[in-house]
Write a structure and sequence with these properties.
- This protein is of the alpha/beta class and 282 residues long.
- It has two domains: 10-45; 56-278, TIM Barrel.
- It has six helices and nine strands.
- The chain has helices at 10-45, 98-102, 125-134, 151-159, 183-201, 211-217, and strands at residues 85-89, 109-116, 120-121, 138-144, 172-174, 206-210, 227-231, 249-256, 265-270.
- An eight-stranded mixed β-barrel has the order 1-2-4-5-6-7-8-9.
- Helix 5 (183-201) links the parallel strand 5 (172-174) and strand 6.
């Protein structure tokens, strides 16, 4: 059986075509606007952790973080007023002329990398400690924490290089990554390592981490008995932590220049009411 098509005048056909195009053009901007609103809502939800953590690129061994451009004054570093400044070094700096470093009025303390994880040690550690102390600098040591390695293994690795009697400053546990382990494992291993180091040195170590890493993993009071060194490369403003939490040291630059050291070096200073007494071991 066949069906004949109804007759539609040409003018009516043209009108329907124009009306359809008008509806398509009107609906697309509305849909796009709805998508934009959804995108803005997602960005606001993730606001606190969109800022890149300054230490996140340092979590891989033997990899130098990307330099951050920062205006320098003569002699290296920015001027932050009457604060006590210092540096931290590792094998990245190679051979250091500690005589020249010690003559810099803005180097009052030095933290030197000793070890990382369960089996990595710094080849320059022993000579750096010996020469820095010989030139009259206050010296401390740090260990790079790996959450995927047992705490006792990391402790033995750290102490295979460090002699407590040769330390002037509190030790530092450098915490920059969870290594993909569950949160419970991360905290259990870190707290055990902190306990072992405290028992060995007689005082609690300092925890070093980035501002964003602190806000995500340390905020909440679980580590209230520990002092913190916070890395945040905002040259003109001290970082503010969640809850306005206190910290002792601020690492403000990874591109410092110091005579006696080739290339860049991390620079830090004591903040607020804190002084050298807050980081001395004895």
């Amino acid at each position: 059986m066949t069906h004949s098509r109804p007759y539609i005048p040409r003018k009516a056909t043209l009108f329907l075509l124009i009306f359809s195009l008008f509806l398509c053009g009107f609906s697309q901007p509305a849909m796009a606007k709805k998508k934009d609103k959804k995108k803005v809502k997602t960005e606001q939800t993730d606001y606190y952790f969109l800022e890149p953590d300054p230490v996140s690129t340092k979590s891989k061994p033997d990899r130098r973080p990307r330099n951050v451009e920062q205006p320098l004054l003569e002699g290296g570093g920015r001027y932050y007023g009457p604060h006590i400044h210092g540096i931290d070094v590792s094998h990245y700096q190679g051979n250091i002329d500690w005589g020249q470093v010690a003559r810099d009025r803005d180097v009052n303390y030095v933290f030197i990398k000793a070890s990382e994880g369960g089996n990595i040690t710094d080849e320059y550690y022993t000579s750096n400690v010996r020469e820095a102390r010989r030139k009259g600098l206050k010296v401390g040591s740090y260990h790079f924490f790996r959450a995927n390695v047992a705490a006792d293994v990391q402790f033995r690795n750290f102490m295979s290089k460090v002699e407590v009697r040769h330390q002037d400053l509190l030790p530092i546990i450098d915490v920059e990554t969870t290594n993909g382990v569950p949160s419970a494992t991360f905290h259990a291993r870190l707290q055990e390592l902190l306990r072992l180091v405290t028992r060995e040195f007689g005082k609690r170590p300092i925890i070093y981490t980035g501002k964003n890493f602190y806000n995500k993993h340390f905020y909440g009071g679980r580590y209230r008995d520990y002092k913190f060194m916070i890395a945040c490369y905002t040259p003109d403003n001290e970082p503010v932590l969640f809850g306005n939490d206190d910290y002792v040291l601020w690492q403000y630059s990874q591109t410092g220049r110091i005579r006696g050291i080739r290339g860049s070096v991390d620079r830090s200073r004591l903040v607020g009411r804190h002084g050298m007494r807050d980081i001395l071991l004895r």
